[in-house]
């Protein structure tokens, strides 16, 4: 019923029935009135102003709020009444997306799926495409509760609106069991060059999903599964093992075990990596084990034969594994010598298979691309005939073929010839062995070929291989005569390929045959070929041999002077000592002393101290201890502090032996500058000396010097620590060890005032 407050609004409406403002004011004023009255006002308003979005929105919201807490099944008439209102509204306001959205939300509370779908179709037809994105999220959410067929249809339509949602569509198809359509969509994705995954998946991942779908759902038709998987394996070789196993699984699930075996067999014989092989082989083993297990479960005597056959096939498969792995590695690198050797070893004592493997290996491997020592494969092949087959004639044929192979290095070719000769030696064919090496080292009389010229074949450079010549020389020396060996050494010198060892061996051979002068001439020729440091070894042996031969002193002196002329200081010590010993042995001690003195001035490094010590020992033995004083003084002057400290210590012992206490004490004072008081041996020795020979004054003087030296060492240590701290990176402090004892009181003096100049 109308109230007094309603009269002004009613009068305003009567005056201007087509004016929206009075109606809106009236609706606003009735917010606190009963629902029925508010509905009566809005019903009149929407009837009068049928195209007013605001009035319809107020009215529809009011009616929806009224049934928000009730169920459709309890009050269906209420829901149907609201449905009729929405039907009127969308006819008048069909371009208003909010009205359609509210209507769809209202319908989704009711069980009539058809009404939802038809209304959604009407909304899409009424609204422009630019506003469809406001409807689709709600409909996609609706598909979660809709039946499978309805959900699929809605998603299929949505795909036309948003093609980027293909992957979500595929997920729904798989979840709802539409495997055929899912596979079709996956194939379409893979065939599209413009497809970009919204989920960040690669083409390989999409392909794997398709293949797993094909393998696990046999109801999918119209797709060549085997062709698709093999094509994928060729396209993605790094996934070959996994894809091959999936193909086998496809046939296993269809109970076609023979086809599964064929697939797995093809997989293990064509795998290119050990990883793929292992994956396929393990699946193969699992298949065979499962078949055997099922046969054993039946416990039917009629299946015993089949079980035995399956067990035998399984054992053969396991026995083949090492060969199959080897096949994989050889497919990766057919030039892998080591793998071919392993292949030979797998055959054990099967002569026919071993020979076949060697033959295939040598036909397959390219000498220029061989990975490993191809020569060793040829050698082992020949040894197989020699030792296993006892067929030395065939072994010779193999070696002969091997000598014509263009190996990567001359050393490999040399190994072939050497092994051939050694085989002849094992057969006691000494002349034949020599003939083999003579043929190997044969070359132009005046050869200009450079051994290191890689543009020349190994066969052209073999005659300059010192490896081949060394074996040839050793061979002829062991079974031939001097007359046979000499021309070979001369040929080596002519080719200018000899080493210091060649020179020494040739000279030693002549010496053994008592051709002493010829031996010395060989040494001379070797010294013309080599300079220091290689010449040092030749000189060392040459001089020893010359001294032992007791040549004239002048000739020997000339040899020693020649040896020392170009000798580096770090190598000269042994020659000087040998030279001095020669003079001593000939009774010319003073000459020897001069040589030792020269040595102390020429030798450098750690050898200098040792040379001085030897010099002192020889002078002491020949002239007595007093004569060593000048040598000690020179040593102290010329040696570094660390070595001078050692010499001082020994010099003190000499003076003490001679009873020269004052001189020894003076040496203690001089040597104190080299010895840190914290290092006990020197100072303990001085203290014992003073207790033995000194008095209270000399003992106090020793303590005073010790304090002075201690102060000097601490000053130097502080300076070094300060310097290191300045040079240290910012934020780091150089640590110094702390003395736990209280340091002695430092005197005013920082140096030893009584330090003496050792002018003895």
UniProtKB/TrEMBL annotation:
Residue ranges constituting the Pre-mRNA-splicing factor Syf1/CRNKL1-like C-terminal HAT-repeats domain according to the UniProt record: 367-742
CC terms in the record's Gene Ontology section: post-mRNA release spliceosomal complex; Prp19 complex; U2-type catalytic step 2 spliceosome
GO BP terms: generation of catalytic spliceosome for first transesterification step
UniProt keyword Repeat present: yes
Keywords: mRNA processing, mRNA splicing, Nucleus, Repeat, Spliceosome
Intracellular or extracellular location(s): Nucleus
Top-level lineage group: Eukaryota
Record's protein name: Pre-mRNA-splicing factor SYF1
């Amino acid at each position: 019923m109308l109230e007094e407050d309603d009269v002004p609004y009613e009068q305003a409406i009567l005056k201007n029935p087509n004016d929206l403002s009075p109606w809106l004011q009236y609706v606003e004023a009735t917010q606190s009135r009963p629902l029925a009255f508010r509905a009566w006002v809005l019903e009149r308003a929407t009837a009068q102003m049928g195209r007013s979005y605001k009035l319809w929105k107020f009215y529809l919201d009011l009616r929806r709020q009224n049934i928000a807490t009730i169920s459709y099944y309890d009050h269906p008439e209420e829901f149907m009444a609201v449905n009729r209102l929405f039907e009127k509204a969308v006819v008048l306001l069909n371009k208003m997306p909010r009205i359609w959205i509210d209507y769809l939300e209202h319908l989704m509370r009711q069980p009539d799926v058809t009404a939802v779908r038809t209304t959604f179709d009407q909304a899409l037809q009424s609204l422009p495409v630019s506003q469809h994105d406001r409807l689709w999220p709600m409909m996609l959410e609706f598909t979660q509760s809709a039946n499978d067929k309805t959900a699929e249809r809605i998603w299929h339509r949505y795909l036309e609106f948003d093609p980027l949602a293909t992957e979500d569509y595929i997920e729904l198809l798989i979840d709802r069991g539409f495997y055929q359509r899912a596979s079709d969509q996956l194939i379409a994705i893979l065939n599209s060059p413009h497809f970009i995954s919204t989920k960040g998946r690669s083409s390989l991942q999409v392909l794997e999903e398709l293949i797993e779908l094909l393998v696990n759902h046999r109801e999918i038709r119209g797709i060549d599964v085997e062709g698709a998987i093999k094509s994928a394996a060729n396209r993605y070789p790094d996934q070959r093992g996994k894809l091959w196993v999936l193909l086998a699984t496809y046939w296993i699930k269809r109970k076609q075990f023979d086809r599964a075996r064929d697939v797995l067999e093809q997989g293990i014989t064509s795998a290119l990596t050990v990883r793929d092989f292992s994956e396929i082989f393990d699946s193969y083993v699992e298949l065979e084990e499962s078949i055997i297990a099922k046969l054993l479960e039946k416990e039917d005597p009629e299946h015993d034969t089949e079980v035995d056959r399956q067990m035998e096939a399984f054992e053969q498969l396991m026995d083949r594994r090492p060969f199959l792995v080897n096949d994989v590695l050889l497919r990766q690198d057919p030039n892998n010598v080591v793998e071919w050797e392993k292949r030979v070893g797998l055959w054990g004592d099967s002569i026919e298979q071993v020979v076949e493997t060697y033959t295939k290996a040598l036909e397959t491997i390219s000498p220029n691309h061989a990975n490993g020592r191809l020569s060793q494969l040829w050698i082992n092949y020949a040894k197989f005939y020699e030792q296993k087959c006892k067929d030395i004639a065939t072994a010779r044929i193999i070696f002969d073929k091997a000598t014509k192979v263009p190996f990567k290095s001359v050393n490999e070719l040399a190994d072939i010839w050497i092994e051939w000769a050694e085989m002849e030696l094992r057969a006691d064919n000494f002349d034949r062995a020599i003939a083999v090496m003579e043929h190997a080292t044969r070359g132009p009389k005046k050869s200009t070929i450079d051994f290191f010229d890689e543009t020349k074949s190994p066969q052209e450079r073999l005659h300059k291989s010192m490896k081949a010549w060394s074996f040839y020389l050793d061979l002829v020396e062991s079974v031939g005569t001097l007359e046979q060996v000499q021309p070979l050494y001369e040929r080596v010198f002519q080719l200018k390929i000899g080493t210091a060892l060649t020179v020494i061996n040739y000279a030693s051979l002549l010496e053994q045959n008592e051709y002493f002068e010829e031996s010395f001439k060989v040494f001379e020729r070797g010294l013309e070929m080599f300079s220091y440091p290689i010449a040092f070894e030749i000189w060392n042996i040459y001089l020893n041999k010359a001294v032992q031969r007791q040549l004239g002193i002048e000739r020997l002196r000339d040899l020693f002077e020649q040896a020392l002329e170009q000798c580096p200081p770090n190598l000269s010590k042994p020659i000087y000592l040998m030279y001095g010993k020669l003079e001593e042995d000939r009774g010319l001690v003073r000459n020897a002393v001069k040589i030792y003195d020269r040595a102390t001035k020429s030798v450098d490094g750690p050898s200098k101290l040792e040379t001085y010590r030897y010099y002192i020992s020889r002078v002491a033995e020949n002239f007595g201890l007093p004569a060593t004083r000048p040598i000690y003084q020179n040593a102290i002057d010329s040696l570094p502090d660390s070595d001078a400290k050692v010499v001082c210590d020994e010099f003190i012992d000499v003076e003490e032996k001679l009873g020269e206490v004052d001189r020894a004490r003076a040496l203690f004072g001089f040597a104190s500058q080299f010895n840190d008081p914290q290092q006990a041996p020197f100072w303990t020795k001085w203290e014992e000396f003073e207790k033995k020979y000194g008095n209270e004054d000399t003992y106090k003087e020793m303590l005073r010097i010790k304090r002075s030296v201690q102060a000097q060492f601490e000053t130097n240590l502080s300076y070094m620590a300060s310097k290191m701290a300045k040079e240290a990176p910012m934020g780091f402090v150089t640590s110094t060890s702390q003395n736990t004892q209280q340091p002695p009181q430092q005197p005013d003096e920082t140096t030893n005032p009584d330090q003496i100049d050792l002018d003895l």
